[in-house]
Predict the structure.
Amino acid sequence: METGAVNAVRGMNDILPRDSAVWQRVEAELRRIFRAYSYREIRLPLLEKTELFARSIGEATDIVAKEMYTFDDRNGESLTLRPEATASCVRAGIEHGLFHNQCQRFWYMGPMFRHERPQRGRYRQFYQAGAEAFGWTGPDTDAELIAMSSRFWSGTKLQIPPRLEINSLGDSDTRAAYRRRLVEYLQGYERDLDPDSRNRIRTNPLRILDSKDPNTQRILQGAPTLFDGLDADSRAHFDGLCRYLDELGIRYTVNQRLVRGLDYYNRTVFEWVTDELGAQGAVCAGGRYDGLVQQLGGKRAVPAAGFALGMDRLVELASMNEAMRSPTRADVYIIMVGEGARSRGWSHAEKLRGRGFNVEMYCGEGGMKNQMKRADKSGALIGLLLGEDELESDSITLKMMQRRGEQVTVAAGDLVTKVQELIGEHRV
Ligand code: ATP
Ligand code: MG
């Protein structure tokens, strides 16, 4: 039998208690902001039929071609750990008839799985929060999604917020025509392209625009842009979006090379990027995907737009701020000396917990000095002392741990009021 310790799967991280405080703060802010825009939560399974992703994200994308965790179920059905959640939102919407004559605003949060090379900001289990709006065609919805995402940066107190890039991919005719022009142009340079891009000329030429290879980037400088050949409706849609963003005071740059790694996008695409995280600069990305509902079997076309936010990357940005990182501490730490005090202390603790206070209790046997040391270390605001004297007079001594240890003894019946008062004072 093997006896060594078993480690986690590569690229799948534990989030330890010392780090979970910042995760919780970020999650709470995201929830608050989703609610402020009237988006409602949808919870989706982690596993889906493989076909769902193949048919939505696209066979020739990095995700489907090489990043999915796919395996056969015990009955031989091919399943995949979700690499993203948009396809699942669409699947659930169709399956439950949520798109019949209704518009919908959804948000979700949770783990995604991609078999990539693990590095800073890129993991195999990572977390996304996302929003999807179904039923609206206009650029006001795209602007709403962007406005909502722009609030994440102030909500999580980022000192240097990411910057916004936008582009339009037009309609499918525009993209088909552009694909031909781009391929024609790139074929003249085929031998100078990096190997990945060379392969993509045949499989997914638009993705070449996204190549990080310096030589390929140089070649692309002279390439035609999709934006020049944009159809009139998409152009008007894009101009509409720009007007809304201007009106809202949201700054952006138009990046005509911005394409997304998933095939389902049309018209608006956008990305929030930062220079603060090294190579992995994309924090939040999304766009419009008007064709996806029908592509996944919806009875009629349902216009849609959405985004996904990389929570690991947002948490790393937020962690640069000390205040976001500080651990959550107990309000009250109970110190009890003697058998009788221990059971009385326990009932005080329960009363306070029932009123919403965070109470830590010394468990097991321990002398006064030892317990005091623990109370200090816990960072609690108030120490509750319960010894022989307190037991006899049914009172309790409160010690302000964070303020040179001022002490006051109150009747047991006044405990909750006194704790409320002291904590209130400390918070102002
Ligand atoms: P990238 O260009 O960084 O690979 P992507 O285009 O594959 O990103 P999307 O599928 O659009 O990313 O996902 C949206 C966001 O999710 C990204 O902007 C990023 O913040 C985050 N993300 C994507 N893949 C990972 C990963 N493997 N680890 C951590 N975060 C990720
Ligand atoms: Mg990727």
Observations:
- Residues 139 and 240 are 6 Å apart (CA to CA).
- The pocket of magnesium ion (ligand 2) is lined by residues 62, 261 (CB under 6 Å).
